[in-house]
Structures are given as structure tokens and as C-alpha cells.
Hints:
heterodimer; A: 504 residues; alpha/beta; Rossmann fold; 3 domains; 6-stranded mixed sheet; 17 helices; 26% strand; B: 313 residues; mainly alpha; ABC transporter involved in vitamin B12 uptake, BtuC
Amino acid sequence: xxxxxxxxxxxxxxxxxxxxxxxxxxxxxxxxxxxxxxxxxxxxxxxxxxxxxxxxxxxxxxxxxxxxxxxxxxxxxxxxxxxxxxxxxxxxxxxxxxxxxxxxxxxxxxxxxxxxxxxxxxxxxxxxxxxxxxxxxxxxxxxxxxxxxxxxxxxxxxxxxxxxxxxxxxxxxxxxxxxxxxxxxxxxxxxxxxxxxxxxxxxxxxxxxxxxxxxxxxxxxxxxxxxxxxxxxxxxxxxxxxxxxxxxxxxxxxxxxxxxxxxxxxxxxxxxxxxxxxxxxxxxxxxxxxxxxxxxxxxxxxxxxxxxxxxxxxxxxxxxxxxxxxxxxxxxxxxxxxxxxxxxxxxxxxxxxxxxxxxxxxxxxxxxxxxxxxxxxxxxxxxxxxxxxxxxxxxxxxxxxxxxxxxxxxxxxxxxxxxxxxxxxxxxxxxxxxxxxxxxxxxxxxxxxxxxxxxxxxxxxxxxxxxxxxxxxxxxxxxxxxxxxxxxxxxxxxxxxxxxxxxx
Amino acid sequence: xxxxxxxxxxxxxxxxxxxxxxxxxxxxxxxxxxxxxxxxxxxxxxxxxxxxxxxxxxxxxxxxxxxxxxxxxxxxxxxxxxxxxxxxxxxxxxxxxxxxxxxxxxxxxxxxxxxxxxxxxxxxxxxxxxxxxxxxxxxxxxxxxxxxxxxxxxxxxxxxxxxxxxxxxxxxxxxxxxxxxxxxxxxxxxxxxxxxxxxxxxxxxxxxxxxxxxxxxxxxxxxxxxxxxxxxxxxxxxxxxxxxxxxxxxxxxxxxxxxxxxxxxxxxxxxxxxxxxxxxxxxxxxxxxxxxxxxxxxxxxxxxxxxxxxxxx
Lengths: 504, 313
């Protein structure tokens, strides 16, 4: 790299209690460069960047930033200092005030607070010039709450650029975008780097890392395990760096679909808003079949999931499970009909955090004869059940009599998988089943879903992760604006266009 | 006199504005606190403390404007207590607010009793008098309604404009609205969430105390027990009615003032037929109804009641 170095992280370490989040991580960044920071969940990527931006104070190590031609140490633990040194960060969860306009969100904090007048004209001119130069466009005078996710992200980047950022950190920037929006983002990033901006982007998606970065640094268990120029890398090499071994490729046998397990006929659901409504959906999921529902979140997935899990009632149309029409869908009738449910928000909807792991494992079948007799719980049976399931599904944590909320995200998901799969459901609803899981845990979810398919269950897989759908699903439907449409193609580009509603 | 004719008398409209004055201060104060994300149920007690502090300062010879300053400072002090408990310490805003109300009310009564242990009729002060602007107060109708009010009513109206201006036209207002919507947005831009919220709660509480001071320094000229009489709670409801907008806050306060003035006059009209308590209830029932209608589309500050802690994201 010919360009001068503008940032170096020197042996940064951070521990939270007994957990080492970062262990002496060093990184260099050059002007105009895109550095991808790659690693599984919990590898320490975000912690590292939060130290750079001053949200966390490192236990040891230092940061140097090029200022006026000299590498100057950065005062750590102060976001103000990082901002002043030209470091801007776009968090995974946007830090925008939805009631304010784009303009106010961008300018917030850069004006003197105690002044009777704001110099809006000058700020506006500067912002327009930045928009022009970077190609990032967002409506200035609209409340951010009315903008799309892609636009909100652009506002976040504009915030950093407005503060004269020379180093931009993007934390999982594509997690919430359609493939097309992601492409636009990376085009913008390319324009900005030509103007001298240096970008660090955090990701666990190999494809985009390979496509859009100059250099890749891989973190595992808080340590930097490798650094490689992107032109010398391929998926297999970096995947091995990330997990420390070759990822097991889940074999997917071909199977012929059997009888319908779930059938929706002309079903509409009217939710609170358009985001959770479904209009006139008709489809079937058959035995030995995984139907993948692709789409950007907020396009009716929650209505579909609510319907199949019995939480929402259809306004019109019929729902049948295993050929029997469910006249009054509620959670109990759906469970009794043989639907296993893996909810989207596993912490909130999947477990009762204050109850024990063992209790959570039987929570959907408290009326079963082996769990209770005459209204009294059979503690021994519940414990035996928990012992068996924790072993079979490798649920790790402080023990089956500990509160379920103490488990890590991956282990909570294993708990839910154990509860659902152990009942051999006819139909499995898996809503974003691997979101936030690391590669090992995600592969486990995929393996279990394929196993259920082999056994003869039907699987309805709702996911924003296109790679997951392409890897698991037999058929693919796209949901956009509450409308479902079946796709015959498995081409990423075309699926992406349908997800954006470009053509039906 | 016909019931509808009440609406045409200038004394009715003058009374409405007079009754609305403390509510205007109170609603604006509660609005500022809530815009920053902090519900301040200390308002009822802060009213009492403001009434007490303003009156006592004047009684001790501080002068009327000195009295207002004293009331505002005492209000800001109780606001600081509420803010420390709810902002950096992140305790329940409901519990802390009710605690402040109990504390501020009792401490005011206590000081009053300690200062005047053996008084049966409360000592009177020279309160704010109607502001007689030459010529204007003699105008028909408009004169008595607008130009025979005290300086405090004008101060209240001025505050409506001031609060609106600060919230909508200054960088400080933008920051207060941002911290009430998403504190992370403020933190990420290098501003202090704690300072903004504590400052907003103190400023809001100072305004509430002025509302209380109006009672002892303009409406009456002495301090009584129980004189706040639920006005603070009415303000909390009116903020929702106003959808957190200063202009609509003024409207809500005036509406409540009008209900109250109307029921007093109605009592003298048909008092023989209906028990008086029904009339006393009327403004509250009507404001509940107005609230039900207006609050349906209310746009709550998103971070209202949610504590924020530095370094937790």
C-alpha cells in the first residue's frame, strides 16, 4: 500500500469480568483503504471498534492517529476525542433521533448549544457539498422516522462525514439492507475512499468482504488470527481463519416432497401497520420440503410468522395444518396440530428468562400427562427431560436449574431447538433462526432443519439471510409489502430485485 | 341569565385566562421535562413549594420579582433532586416523582408552620396587581379580558413563545428533543445525555414553581394548605392533550380554565337544581374526555421513562 498510514491500534486489550474480549490486537489502516474486519459473533470486532471510538476504555494498549502529518496518540475512552481526531462510527443499531429531520440529526452536537440563532444556511451548504461529493443522498427536511433503512444508514454516514471524518467505521453495515442497497452502499464507499477516506468495515459475510475490501483482518476469540490482502484471499481460506478449521458443508439430499403439511388459501392478515400485514397469500409447505421466505425485514414476515404460530388471526382465507383446517388459530391449537415454532426474537418470545432451563424445555406441553398429574408438576420428569435434551442438543451454560436468560444467544437457540424438535412436529416455523449466531451454531440449526426435512416434516424458513435460504430451501418465495410471490430462479441478483419490489 | 350568555361576558373570558395562567407555567414545565425523556410527577409538590417560596420571599421583603426568582430557584432545586434520582441513578421516574411531590409539599407546610407557629389567619402580602396599560384596558371586551391581567399572566404567555422558540429554533432545543427520542443519538455526537436531561428537568421544574407562585402572588395574596389542589396533575394530563407542543399546551390550559370558569358561573345559575360537587367535577371530567380524544394519536417522546446509562449499548 503506497498511501500513508493514518491509524494504528497497538496491542489493545479489553476484558469484561473473566471474558477476554480483545487480547493485544494490533491493526494499521492507510489512507483511502477499505479494511474488512471479519470474525464470528463474539470474536471481539465490535469491542475493538468501540475502544477506538471511545465507548470503552481499553485495559491496555494505545491508539495513534495521523494528525498534521504526525502519528499522535489518541486520548482513549472519550468519544469527543475520537470525533475530534476524525474518527466516525456507524453503529449496527443506528443512533438517530427519529423525531428530528436528517438535517438536525447530522448537525446535532456540532453547533454551540447556547445561542439564540442557528447558522442553518452555512450548515446546509456544507452538508449539500458533502452529499454531492460522496454520492450519499437523503431527504434533508424529512423526519428520519419516515426514511427507509437504507436512507437512515446514509444519514449515519453523513453524520460522520459532516464531522470531517477521515476514518469511518461501519459496524455490520449490510445487515439491514437489500442486496441492491448494499451494492449502492459499497459504490458510495468506493467514491469516498477515492477522496481519501479510510474505511474499516465489520462483517461476517464472506462474500461482501471479498468483493469490497482491499485488506482483510480476521479476529477469533478476541485475537487477530490473520491478515491478508483481499486479492490473495478466497472464501475457503478466510472461512478457515474465522472458525479455525474447515467449515463442515451440510449435505443436502434430494427428496421428493410429499403431502401438504401447511396450506394457506387466500389468507389476509391485517396487522397494526402495513409492516405486519399479509395480503391474499396462498401456498403450501409439503412433507420433506423446506420453503424459504426471503425478504427485507418489515415486509410482512411478522404477520406470516404470527399467523403460523397462532398469534394472529386471518381476516380472510383458511389455514390448514396436515390437511385439517384450523378454524380458530391460537397458539395452543397450532401446537396441538403439530406446529413447532422457532421465534424471531428468541430472548423475548422464545423463552421465559426468569424461569429455569428445565422449565423452559417443557413450557409448551405443560398439560402432557408425563409433565403433570392433577395440576401438580412432576419435577423429576421435568429434570429427566432437561438432562436428556441438554445432552442431545449440547445446551451449555450454568446448568438446567439456572434461569434461562443466563444462557448465551446460541445456547438459548439450542434450548428452543431442543424443545421444538423433540416433539417431532409436522411443520416447523423457523423465523430468522440463525440471526446473531456464530457459524458453528448456525450450521447446527441448518443441520437440524435438514434432519427434520428428512424425517418428513415440512419447514417454513423465514430469513433475511439470502445465503441461508439458498443453502437450505427447496423452494423460494419472496415477501414484499405483504405480498408473497414464488420464484423459479435461484439467481441472487433476481431475488434481490424481487426483495426490493422491483418486479413481481 | 341564559347559560350561553355566560360565554359572551368579558368576566368569563378574563377568569378563564386567569385560571389558565398557573396551568400554562405547569404544562410548559412538564413539557420540557418530558421532551428530554423524564416524566416529572414532582409537579404537584413543586407547585406547593413554589407557592410557599414565592410568598415567603415577598413576605420577608424580597419584592415581587425577587419572590418569583426565589420560587424558580426552589423549583429548580427540587427538579435537581428528581433529576439526580432518575437520570444518572436511573430510578423509577414514577416513584421518584411521587416522592418529590410528597417531600416538597410537606417541607413547604413544615417551613410555613415553623416560621408562623401561632397564626390563625395567614399573613397577606402585596401581590401582583392588574397591569393597567394606559388606554388598552378601557377597550370594550378585549380590555378587561387581556389588559386587566397581572404581569404573571403576561409572563406565562411570553414563556409559551420562549419555550416554542427554544425547542424549534435553537440548537439546544434540537438536542433536548433528540435526547428524549434516542439518547444514543446525542451520546454518539459527543453531547452529554446527563447534562441535557438534568438541565431540562431543572428548567422545567423552575417553570412549574412559577405556576405555584402565581397562586400566592397573583391569584391570592397568602399561603394556604392544600391550595395547589390537583393543578399539577391537571398539567401532566394537559401535556398529553397538547401532544408535547407549546402552542397546544396553551390551548389546553385555556380550555381547562374556561371549563372551570364556566362551572363557577353555571353553579350560580342552576345551583339549586344540581349538587355543587357535580360542577366541581365538571372541568376534570371534561379534561379527561378531551384527553381521550386528543391522546389517541399522541406522539410520545420515544425515550420517555427510559433511563440511559453511559457505556451500555
